[in-house]
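Objective 1b: paired records.
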Amino acid sequence: MTSNISFIRSAQLADVDYAYASRVPSDMDLLFLAGACPLNEKGEVPHPQDYALQAKLCVENTKEVLKESGASLKDVVYTRVLVASHQQSDLVTAWEAIRKEFGDHDVPSTLSGVTVLGYTDQLVEIEAVAAIKTVQNQRGRSRGSF
């Protein structure tokens, strides 16, 4: 995790595999990522019945956007995971695949089951917010580090 971002856990709430909140210092820029879809380089949704593989591809696409923005998964301060299913087990499958990709970076997250997502055969989508250190440009105005 980057500079002074902190995750808040609670001794009064259930012990879960994610933080309950994150705190971002005011000198950091926030990046709001559009929902990462499980699209391959051809714009197709592969693995039409596989929640885990689609979740992994969503994380890979998230990592690429973060990289192009000067960030990484360690800079993510919040995610929302959408899973097209009415079966809790499908949500758990997607969640476990995503958590594995994030490793010990137990970012606060919301996991929701939805009826349908935007692309044909799409099962998973990840929205993310990341924070990166603000840098000063040559004229003294602040901008993100990307």
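Objective 1b, second protein:
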Amino acid sequence: MTILMNRLAASLALTLTFTLGVQAAPLTAGTTLTGANLGQHLGDTFEGHKIGDLLTERMQQLMHEEGLTIILKASQPVVLGKDFEAATKANAGKAVYNKDTRQVDGWVSGVPFPNVSADDPDAAAKLIWNHHYAQPTKNLQDYPKFAYLFISDKTGLERKQEWAFKRYFMKGRLGSNDVIEGDGSILSKTLLYATYPNDIRGLGLFTIRHDSPKLEDSWAYIKSVRRTRRLSGGTWMDPIGGTDQLNDDIEIFNAHPSWYAGYKLLGKRWILAVPNSTTQAWKQGASGDAEFPIIDLANAPHWNPKDGWEPREVWVIEAITPPEHPYSKKVLYMDTQFPRFYQAEAYDRKGQFWKWMNYHLKTIKTADGDTGIVSSAGFTIDYQRRHGTAFILSDEGRLNTPGVKGDDVNLRELEKAAR
């Protein structure tokens, strides 16, 4: 009897080993993961990583409950700009994080802290400062046309708006003999305004961000009186028009680091993200759902993206908001090779999951032959309100447009756009 039991146990173990071996298979690029087949693929691998390890808990929930579909794509390197890398190398070690003031001293240009260690007690703060100071976009983000899509989970696309965005960096300038333009007190100037339809044309903001904890100087165009009005410094936490985004949510994180109460490094891991988007975001001239191939407008909940997802190593950072902020915290996923966020989870004041933000990146040539990284599309989904806003960049988006100076990004341009 004992011999028989031992043979049965050995046979069962062999069968189990064989079964698990069959289940844990390497997946190939092009494999589609859905909520329906996710269970059978969690133990499988892609480029050496288990699928279960590449998907955050929130992504798995969205696949099961919200129809999020993941198409695996072979990894490609992200090519950073030559001037961006040269500035980082030339200025390594000059920046110092001041724990008492929560500010950075000595930054010139490039990434202030290129070699952050996970065991550094200030690691999270330094990573946020990397993002604040060293966007791999060169000196000017110039998006003359992007779309905001307003989406209901029941009825689909509600309306489309067209906007323009321009951000000019006054400090840390790349590929220039003068890394500072002006007196050094201003970090950047930003214009964000609607161009279509006519009833909202000119609605927007002109913002000056100081290189200090001082709140931004902001002006808005008020259509009812055809005048611009200066706003309070708290506009960085306000919603953008009727979108699901706050000003703080532009490209996931858009605040001065010291405006948040603090940061925690939750770890380093691999996730599936979109660093090299190849899906056309906006097919201008097409009609209906075909106009925006990067989003599944035809099928409920109508806001899920369509693109190829690659394994990327990320830092996971918890950003704790000030008491007056609508969110209690954001959990951010930043690429370890360059300071850009792929995803974020926002939580309400009760600590309940509220919004998921997911941005797709791509590398484009700058006017001077260098390269920079832009967001081809971004999705901010309010799962409590059952509503989403998609940011879709047109092919007209460019970096480092020649001939533009800091003085050209001004309040007059906002007023002119409304006429």
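The helical segments are 2-23, 38-41, 51-54, 57-66, 82-90, 123-133, 411-417. The longest helix spans residues 2-23.
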